[in-house]
């Protein structure tokens, strides 16, 4: 392409400091270096994790930063040595890399690639500790090596996967985070069985993707829990059999769930990111064999307090990142399953806005009005 090897000027949403709304400005995006790929982002969702960056919940993040990790796009150019994709390929940036070489990538037991962005000493520049973005003469930091809130972004080879040429990018951007995160928590981490009883705390984009996973796995009871009752209709449409709001009961919601199920749920999922609801999710599980899966991200430094007998009795507490998928291996198949209508993720997209309206998109998320708002460049 004519732009290969050159700096590209384009629009991006810069978060200049924690607590500030993102401002859409012109940035310069340097060409990809060795082992890197520059991608033209076509569509990106807004996830609660991006809102955490906005609010400053991750103390190790340096600002100014370009957030965004739920995107889909087209390869513009590749740096020396890149073999996994070529210009013109449709791709999804991976918010958890798969380097293929580290101890975890070589193990079938985990997807926690050790070349990830938050391993050891956290840093939010590129793996070689330099940045590809500048704005108004200042270096701008990357986020998760994805930074999909920029029309062009640069990714390391471990953080990209090619998908089908026919994939609709304005829809499959959700495969960058929400859908595999929730769906995989049910399918891979909990391994929900037919006939089981599940409770999902938080019915946002991630919790609703858990609902899809539980339904696909054949769960017979799928109970949604959310303080925002406007989420219930969609949850039921996707497979929830019942939905409850904690504020409607005098008793704690774990006691309500115990009464509803007799002995507690087989599987509980926390897709909010609060330690109080994490503790409640665990307490809602069957004492002998219930499994509680943590998905949401509480503010950094949070401590979860549990009573050992809760686990000694046989409950299990676990968690997963991006649904436990090794993303390079899994995403092309998940996208083709979507295209073959194995599941319908389109219904998670409640709003579509031009990229310039990213501030409005965040507001929709913050006020609980959207499930997923997709921004189009
Ligand atoms: N009890 C029950 N539900 C709650 C509570 C609570 N105390 N607090 C918030 N919720 C609900 C919200 O009403 C909302 O429907 O949790 C849902 C969270 O959904 P989103 O904000 O859309 O978040 P989502 O993008 O789905 O991410 C969920 O996973 O990846 C992480 O950082 C992310 O921690 C976040 C979580
Ligand atoms: Zn996310
Ligand atoms: Zn790895």
Automatic annotation (TrEMBL):
Domain Enoyl reductase (ER): 19-375
Keyword Cytoplasm: no
Stored InterPro entries: ADH-like_C (IPR013149), ADH-like_N (IPR013154), ADH_Zn_CS (IPR002328), ER (IPR020843), GroES-like_sf (IPR011032), NAD(P)-bd_dom_sf (IPR036291)
Gene Ontology biological-process annotations: retinoic acid metabolic process; retinol metabolic process
SMART domains documented for this protein: PKS_ER (SM00829)
Gene Ontology cellular component terms for the protein in this record: cytosol
Pfam families recorded: ADH_N, ADH_zinc_N
Entry-linked Gene3D superfamilies: Medium-chain alcohol dehydrogenases, catalytic domain, NAD(P)-binding Rossmann-like Domain
Protein family per UniProt: Belongs to the zinc-containing alcohol dehydrogenase family.
Protein name, per record: Alcohol dehydrogenase 1-like
Organism: Pogona vitticeps
Name of the coding gene: LOC110083976
């Amino acid at each position: 392409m004519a732009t290969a090897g050159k700096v590209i000027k384009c629009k991006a949403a810069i978060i200049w400091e924690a607590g500030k709304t993102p401002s859409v400005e012109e940035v310069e995006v340097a060409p990809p270096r060795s082992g890197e790929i520059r991608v033209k982002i076509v569509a990106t969702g807004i996830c609660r994790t991006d809102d955490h960056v906005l609010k400053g919940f991750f103390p190790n993040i340096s600002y100014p930063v370009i957030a965004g990790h739920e995107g889909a796009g087209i390869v513009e150019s590749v740096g020396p040595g890149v073999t996994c994709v070529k210009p013109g390929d449709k791709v999804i940036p991976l918010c958890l890399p798969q380097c293929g070489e580290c101890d975890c990538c070589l193990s079938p037991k985990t997807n926690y690639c050790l070349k990830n962005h938050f391993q050891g000493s956290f840093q939010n520049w590129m793996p070689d500790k330099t940045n590809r973005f500048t704005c108004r003469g200042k270096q701008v930091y990357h986020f998760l090596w994805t930074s999909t809130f920029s029309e062009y972004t640069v990714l390391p080879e471990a953080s990209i996967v090619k998908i089908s040429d026919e994939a609709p990018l304005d829809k499959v951007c959700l495969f960058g985070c929400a859908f595999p995160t929730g769906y995989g928590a049910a399918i891979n981490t909990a391994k929900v069985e037919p006939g089981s009883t599940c409770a999902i705390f938080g019915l946002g984009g991630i919790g609703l993707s858990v609902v899809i996973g539980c339904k696909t796995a054949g769960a017979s009871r799928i109970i949604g829990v959310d303080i925002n009752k406007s989420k219930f209709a969609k949850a039921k449409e996707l497979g929830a059999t019942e939905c409850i709001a904690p504020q409607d009961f005098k008793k704690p919601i774990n006691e309500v769930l115990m009464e509803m199920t007799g002995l507690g749920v087989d599987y509980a999922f926390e897709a909010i990111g609060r330690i109080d609801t994490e503790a409640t999710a665990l307490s809602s599980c069957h004492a002998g064999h219930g499994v509680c899966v943590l998905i949401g991200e509480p503010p950094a430094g949070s401590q979860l307090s549990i009573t050992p007998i809760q686990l000694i009795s046989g409950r299990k507490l676990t968690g997963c990142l991006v649904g436990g998928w090794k993303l390079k291996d899994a995403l092309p198949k998940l996208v083709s399953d979507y295209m073959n209508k194995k599941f319908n993720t389109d219904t998670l997209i409640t709003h579509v806005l031009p990229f310039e309206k990213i501030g409005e998109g965040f507001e929709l998320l913050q006020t609980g009005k959207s499930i997923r708002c997709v921004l189009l460049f």
